[in-house]
From TrEMBL:
<dbReference type="InterPro" id="IPR017761">
    <property type="entry name" value="Laccase"/>
</dbReference>
<dbReference type="Pfam" id="PF07731">
    <property type="entry name" value="Cu-oxidase_2"/>
</dbReference>
<keyword id="KW-0186">Copper</keyword>
<keyword id="KW-0677">Repeat</keyword>
<feature type="domain" description="Plastocyanin-like">
    <location>
        <begin position="34"/>
        <end position="147"/>
    </location>
</feature>
<keyword id="KW-0325">Glycoprotein</keyword>
<dbReference type="GO" id="GO:0048046">
    <property type="term" value="C:apoplast"/>
</dbReference>
<feature type="domain" description="Plastocyanin-like">
    <location>
        <begin position="160"/>
        <end position="311"/>
    </location>
</feature>
<dbReference type="InterPro" id="IPR011706">
    <property type="entry name" value="Cu-oxidase_C"/>
</dbReference>
<dbReference type="InterPro" id="IPR008972">
    <property type="entry name" value="Cupredoxin"/>
</dbReference>
<feature type="domain" description="Plastocyanin-like">
    <location>
        <begin position="422"/>
        <end position="555"/>
    </location>
</feature>
<dbReference type="GO" id="GO:0052716">
    <property type="term" value="F:hydroquinone:oxygen oxidoreductase activity"/>
</dbReference>
<dbReference type="GO" id="GO:0005507">
    <property type="term" value="F:copper ion binding"/>
</dbReference>
<dbReference type="InterPro" id="IPR034285">
    <property type="entry name" value="CuRO_2_LCC"/>
</dbReference>
<keyword id="KW-0439">Lignin degradation</keyword>
<dbReference type="InterPro" id="IPR002355">
    <property type="entry name" value="Cu_oxidase_Cu_BS"/>
</dbReference>
<comment type="similarity">
    <text>Belongs to the multicopper oxidase family.</text>
</comment>
Length: 572
C-alpha cells in the first residue's frame, strides 16, 4: 500500500475544507408575529389573522441541510399553531405543529420557537396554521433550494415564481365552521379562490386585485404551485401554453408535459413554463377552478390571472388592447382525468435520486375513509339527514381531539385518559364500500392511535366509501413521505390488485388523493419516532373527524430516539 505524500494529504484536507464550506449548514432565523390585519377583497374589508401583517404570509427560503429557527409570537385572541407542511421533521416532532397532536397551541401573549432541520429534502413546500380554520389566511411558501453547486435535474430556469392557491370567504371562517359544527350541516362555501392572495377579474370589483405573470419570450420559468385552499382540489391551466411537471411534493419526478394540472389541498407541484420564442402580441389567461366529486354545494367559481409577454417595441407606442386567450379546463367532476394525471407522476428512480420503496412489508392496514353521521345533541335540531350531524371517519372512527397533546402524553407515558392504542387495522364491518351503503351510517367516536415499532415497513390501503356520498379525499401524512404504489376505481381487491403495484418508480408524496369511489395504496418506513397526524386535507372533513394518528416508538440507538421537548413548548 503506497503512503500518501504530504502534498496529497494537504490537497485532500483542502478539498474536504472547501466541500464543508460549500455545503455548510446555515441556521436561518425567522420571526413570525401573529397579528390582525384589515384586508379588502371583493369590495369588502375584513380583519384577518396574519403573520407580520402579510397576506399571504412571508416566504421561507432555505437550502437542503439548513436549520430553521422560527419564533412565533401570538398577539391575537385565537390559539395558534403552525405546521411546516411536508417537512420530514426527523427526530424533531415537537416542531411539527398540529394542535393537540405534537403540541398544545400557542396562547395569546405567548411564543414558541419551531426548531428543525430540512434534511434530505429540496423543492417546494408550504407552512400553514394547524388549528381550526385559521389556515384560510395563515399560510406561505417554503422554498428549499438544493445544496450549493447541485443543479436541478432539469434545465436551469430563467426565473422562479411561487403561485399559492387560496380560498377566500367574506365571512369570518371561524364563525363559518363553528356554526356548521353547531347545526350539524355543511359549512357555507367560500366566495372566491385566489392566486397569491388575489382573486382576479372574474370576481366582482377585483380587476385591480389580479395576479400578473410578466414573462420574456423564449425563456423557461419554474412555477412553484401550492394548493393552500381549504376545501377544494383545483384544475390549473395557462391558455395556449404547455406545462412540464418536474416535481411533486418536493420530490423530483420524471418530467411530463400537460395542458392542465390537478392539485389537491396540501399538495405542491413544480412545473416548467416555456414561453413562446417570439412575443405573441396577445395576453393569456391563467385559470383554476375546482375538481368536485360530491353532489353537494361547492364554490363553482374560477380564479384568473394574466400571463403577459414583455411588449415589443412596435406595440409600446400603439397602446393597443391585446386579444385575450382563455384555457379549457376539465369538467368539475372529471375523475378519469384525475386518475390519468396522477398515474403520470413517477419518481426519477435513478442512482442520484433513488426510489427506496419498501419491498417487503410487515404491517398491513386497510382504512375506509369517508363520511358518516352522528346523533343530534339532545334538545337540538340538526341539518344532517334525518336530524343527524354530518361527520367523517377512518374505519368508522371519528377522531375526538384531546385536551392535551398526544406527543407529550406518549413521551412521558401519560396516555391514560388521553388516547387509546386500539385503532382498528381494518374496517369493523365489511360491506360493498363503493356500492349501496349500509343502512346504519352512524360512526363511533374516540381518540384512538396506531402504535408502530421503529423502522416498521407499512402498507396502507385507503378505500373511499359511498356512505352519505362518494368523494375524493386528499390524505396527508405528517412526518413521512410515502410511495403511491397503486390506485383504482371501485373496491380494492386484495388478491388481484397487489400484483399490479408499481414498486419500481412510484410517486413519492406527502399528500395523495383517494379517488372518488376508489382506493389508493401507499407504503412507507416508520423511521421517525413521534406522534404523526394523518388526515384529510379538506378542512371540513378534518373538522368532522376524518383524522387519526400513528405513534412511532423509539428505536434502540441514540439517533433513533425522540429527544426531550424544548423548554418553551406551549402548555395546554
Amino acid at each position: 500500500m503506497v503512503a500518501l505524500s504530504q502534498k496529497a494529504i494537504f490537497v485532500n484536507i483542502l478539498l474536504c475544507f472547501i466541500l464543508n464550506i460549500v455545503n455548510a449548514r446555515i441556521t436561518r432565523h425567522y420571526k413570525f408575529q401573529i397579528q390582525l390585519q384589515n384586508v379588502t377583497r371583493l369590495c369588502q374589508t375584513k380583519t384577518i389573522v396574519t403573520v407580520n401583517g402579510q397576506f399571504p404570509g412571508p416566504r421561507i427560503i432555505a437550502r437542503e441541510g439548513d436549520r430553521l429557527l422560527i419564533k412565533v409570537v401570538n398577539h391575537v385572541q385565537n390559539n395558534i399553531s403552525l405546521h411546516w407542511h411536508g417537512v420530514r421533521q426527523r427526530r424533531s416532532g415537537w416542531a411539527d405543529g398540529p394542535a393537540y397532536v405534537t403540541q398544545c397551541p400557542i396562547q395569546t401573549g405567548q411564543s414558541y420557537v419551531y426548531n428543525f432541520t430540512v434534511d434530505g429534502q429540496r423543492g417546494t413546500l408550504f407552512w400553514h396554521a394547524h388549528i381550526s380554520w385559521l389556515r384560510s389566511t395563515l399560510y406561505g411558501p417554503i422554498i428549499i433550494l438544493p445544496k450549493t453547486h447541485q443543479p436541478y435535474p432539469f434545465p436551469q430556469p430563467f426565473k422562479e415564481v411561487p403561485i399559492i392557491f387560496g380560498e377566500w370567504w367574506k365571512a369570518d371562517t371561524e364563525n363559518v365552521i363553528n356554526q356548521a359544527m353547531q347545526n350539524g350541516g355543511a359549512p357555507n362555501i367560500s366566495d372566491a379562490f385566489t392566486f397569491n392572495g388575489l382573486p382576479g377579474p372574474s370576481y366582482n370589483c377585483s380587476a385591480q386585485d389580479t395576479f400578473k405573470l410578466k414573462v420574456k419570450p423564449g425563456k423557461s420559468y419554474l412555477l412553484r404551485l401550492i394548493n393552500a385552499a381549504l376545501n377544494d382540489e383545483l384544475f390549473f391551466s395557462i391558455a395556449n401554453h404547455t406545462l412540464t411537471v418536474v416535481e411533486a411534493d418536493a420530490v423530483y419526478v420524471k418530467p411530463f408535459k400537460t395542458d392542465v394540472i390537478l392539485i389537491t389541498p396540501g399538495q405542491t407541484m413544480n412545473v416548467l413554463l416555456h414561453t413562446k420564442s417570439n412575443s405573441p402580441n396577445a395576453t393569456f389567461l391563467i385559470a383554476a377552478r375546482p375538481y368536485a366529486t360530491a353532489p353537494v354545494a361547492f364554490d363553482n367559481t374560477t380564479v384568473t390571472g394574466l400571463l403577459e409577454y414583455e411588449p415589443t417595441k412596435s406595440l409600446l407606442n400603439k397602446n393597443k388592447k391585446l386579444p385575450l386567450h382563455k384555457p379549457v379546463l376539465p369538467r368539475f367532476n372529471d375523475t378519469s382525468f384525475s386518475i390519468k394525471f396522477n398515474g403520470k407522476i413517477r419518481s426519477l428512480a435513478n442512482s442520484k435520486f433513488p426510489a427506496k420503496v419498501p419491498m417487503r412489508v410487515k404491517w398491513r392496514f386497510f382504512f375506509t375513509v369517508g363520511l358518516g353521521l352522528l346523533p343530534c345533541r339532545r334538545n337540538r335540531s340538526c341539518q344532517g339527514p334525518n336530524n343527524t350531524r354530518l361527520s367523517a371517519s377512518i374505519n368508522n372512527v371519528t377522531f375526538v381531539q384531546p385536551n392535551t397533546a398526544l406527543l407529550q402524553s406518549h413521551f412521558f407515558n401519560k396516555s391514560n385518559g388521553v388516547y387509546t392504542t386500539d385503532f382498528p387495522a381494518n374496517p369493523p364491518i365489511k360491506f360493498n364500500y363503493t356500492g349501496t351503503p349500509p343502512k346504519n351510517s352512524m360512526v363511533s367516536s374516540g381518540t384512538k392511535v396506531v402504535m408502530l415499532p421503529y423502522n416498521s415497513a407499512v402498507e396502507l390501503v385507503l378505500q373511499d366509501t359511498s356512505i352519505v356520498t362518494a368523494e375524493s379525499h386528499p390524505l396527508h401524512l405528517h412526518g413521512f413521505n410515502f410511495f403511491v404504489v397503486g390506485q383504482g376505481i371501485g373496491n380494492f381487491d386484495p388478491n388481484k390488485d397487489p400484483p399490479k403495484f408499481n414498486l419500481v418508480d412510484p410517486a413519492e408524496r406527502n399528500t395523495v388523493g383517494v379517488p372518488s369511489g376508489g382506493w389508493v395504496a401507499i407504503r412507507f418506513i416508520a423511521d421517525n419516532p413521534g406522534a404523526w397526524f394523518m388526515h384529510c386535507h379538506l378542512e371540513v372533513h378534518t373538522s368532522w373527524g376524518l383524522k387519526m394518528a400513528w405513534i412511532v416508538e423509539d428505536g434502540k440507538l441514540p439517533n433513533q430516539k425522540l429527544p426531550p421537548p424544548p423548554s418553551d413548548l406551549p402548555k395546554c
